[in-house]
Write a structure and sequence with these properties.
The protein is α/β, with parallel strands linked by helices. The chain contains ten helices and nine strands.
């Protein structure tokens, strides 16, 4: 057990008395930032929409330098059927591999509030009918959460189930957000988080360390923005470059590099030290499938990276929030 930051696993065990395993599904959503007027999406997005690894069954023919932009279903019925199948497949996998008994449901692919309220309700209702999930997690963008959608999400809160929205912030530097074509600014994230909390929703925030042009001061600024927002959790990603992205073009042309393992450890420790100690750390490293990854190609797996981070913070006498 890691002792220098507040882990998500310990939070879940404290709350539910046992491990809770997350099932990630693709609800057939798209993303407003990939519309033609948004110039094809974020610079780091390869068209997979962060689909769970065990749901990625259609990628075997794709080289790591290729774009991947699957067709999205135009009608809702195939989406509903697919969601149920994905949940059942994910649950079977987690039971078989980990002996899981408690589950949360995560709509993690693409922008999972980018649809009509009527379609969203049918999709969420269908998914939640499969199992009594302990948590419902909706990954989305801070510019795609109108009040009627937040009210819908609030309606799924019960004494037995929390509802989370996961906002992709990535950086608190508006210049960086513009450069990577995020399509929103820091103020949009802060405002969306405030509105989500007014609906009694919990908020997790995604950030990326190592975006082009960023350094120590940017990482600290992003940590402080997450603190100020009141977000309950954070997912930290080191920059990964995959095929079919704007960043891949820069990397292949030699104008962009990614952080080394040592630099990533240093940056992650710095970020954690400036993050409120009560914020739950849901993720500390990216886990892009190797066959999709251009860079970094030499990097430890998740368990080794976390162990080295723990050892580093122990050696330095540091811990989450100690620099505030």
């Amino acid at each position: 057990m890691y002792s220098h930051w507040r882990t998500y696993s310990s939070y879940l065990k404290d709350k539910y008395g046992a491990s809770v395993y997350r099932i990630g599904v693709d609800g057939g959503f798209s993303c407003p930032n990939r519309d033609k007027n948004r110039h094809g999406g974020c610079a780091f997005c390869d068209g997979t929409g962060s689909i769970a690894v065990y749901q990625r069954t259609a990628e075997s023919g794709y080289r790591r330098t290729a774009a991947f932009d699957k067709e999205r279903a135009d009608t809702i019925l195939p989406r509903l059927l697919s969601i149920r199948e994905q949940i059942e497949r994910g649950m079977a996998f987690l039971k078989r591999r980990y002996g899981a008994t408690l589950f949360s449901l995560s709509f993690q692919s693409w922008t999972n509030t980018y649809d009509s309220p009527e379609n969203l309700k049918r999709i969420y209702d269908e998914a939640l009918a499969v199992h009594p999930f302990k948590e419902l997690l909706i990954s989305t963008r801070p510019d795609t959460v109108p009040e009627d959608v937040l009210s819908l999400l609030e309606s799924y809160i019960t004494p037995e189930r929390d509802v989370w929205v996961e906002f992709g912030l990535q950086s608190a530097n508006d210049r960086t957000l513009q450069n990577i074509n995020r399509g929103h600014d820091l103020a949009s994230y802060m405002e969306a988080t405030e509105r989500a909390h007014s609906h009694h929703l919990k908020v997790a925030t995604h950030v990326i360390l190592g975006l082009p042009g960023e350094g120590r001061e940017d990482f600290i600024k992003t940590a402080k923005a997450v603190n100020e927002s009141g977000a309950e959790a954070v997912k930290i990603h080191n920059l990964h470059i995959t095929g079919g992205t704007a960043l891949a073009d820069d990397y292949l042309s030699g104008t962009l590099t990614v952080m080394s393992e040592e630099r990533t450890l240093e940056s992650t420790e710095l970020f954690l030290r400036h993050l409120r100690e009560d914020i739950i750390i849901e993720r500390l490293i990216s886990e892009t499938p190797y066959h999709r990854l251009l860079a970094p190609r030499v990097f430890p797996d998740k368990s080794k990276f976390l162990r080295r981070l723990e050892e580093r913070m122990e050696r330095n006498g540091s811990r989450q929030g100690d620099a505030l």
